[in-house]
Design brief:
This protein has twelve helices and 16 strands. The chain is an alpha+beta fold. The longest helix is centred in the C-terminal third of the chain and has 22 residues. It comes from Croceicoccus marinus.
Length: 435
Amino acid sequence: MTTPPGSNQPRIDIKRIEADINAIARFGFNEEDRGVYRQGFSPEDMAARQWLRDRMGELGLDHRMDGAGNVIGRYGAEGAGADKPAIVIASHLDSVPAGGIFDGVLGVVAGLEVIRTMQDAGITPNYPIEVIATSEEEGRFGGMLGAQALTGNLTREWLEGAADEHGLALKDAMADAGLDYLEALHAYRRPETLHAFLELHVEQGPVLDTEKTTIGVVEGISGVFKWMVRLKGKADHAGTAPMHLRSDALMGMVDFAHEIPRIIDEEGTDKSRITIGHVALKPGFPHTVPGEAEFTIVGRDLDEEVMTRLADSCRKVLESISRRHGLKFDYEQMSWLAPAYCDEGIVALVERNAKALDYSYKIMPSGAGHDVQFFTALTRTGLIFVPSVGGVSHAPDEWTHWSDIERGAQLLCNCVLELACASEQVTPLEQSIAR
């Protein structure tokens, strides 16, 4: 059995990664706006999944597509090791409309390259390694289907009720892709089959690029709450209603928006975010005072207690503003997702290997959701970021320098080698979920 040499780790080949990313980019690429249109279960998405299976076959991996559409390739350990829990390297292949070429794809392609690198070096792992391209991560149907299926976070009711913004039912989209939606309920992986989960992803934000830092070592995924807020006042004539006698719903919303920095200063942390992302005014006529404002509030933090304080403060401020403007206030909490913490041991592993490679790095949270967050309750997890130029993502001009991709993939490879070549099994779940 071969183990990786201490100071002479096998080197990944960035040209192979670049070729793979460019090949996948062709599936759904739009010449007009230069964006990628590869939404979950679209023909373009399924073609990309078949491309991946072909590459896995060329590497001699056991590969399959499960009932949720996840593509799984397994590089097995020999002998008794073949039955050991697997180290999973995963991310997604689907895109948002007019997306970029790196989001999700980088993590899948880097996983393939880790296996190629091990094969080139003649390294046989003590633990099997699985590369997984999860399905429908971008939320076309309102969830992160592939990761939810693998971690047992699906119900039949949700599968049968999910639909995209155009009214296409998830179960019909899966049928068009040759999948039976009920089979997604059989994709669940039991914790004892998992040794660790690692994901490499572009940051999708400006922090690393702005600070000229090579690697983001992610400590956890921020929790998220989403509200739909309604402020109801009185629609009135814009010319005849005196300013001091109006019940202007828009003014109430604007006053709240101005309070957001204070709420974060008093109740939040440097990891807190509050966003008004969608606004609808009624009646929405230029010469009418808005009688109703409906808008979303999305709050985030890495600490659930802080999330609760932010939410309570938002409610109190809205109540006060509503009294001041003569408005009725109500809201619906549409979702509340608790923070998900990466395993402290895996965070230390990534940090140690980043230091050994002499890469600059930053311990940081992820404000965006990723596949990894669903696995934190099942196994040890880690997430590695590389910089996004200008912080741009979910857009055609999303870009990450190939040199940064090379560093991130090499770090991933070194971490996987350390895990895969360990001689003793670590308990699959050694996390500090509650802090």
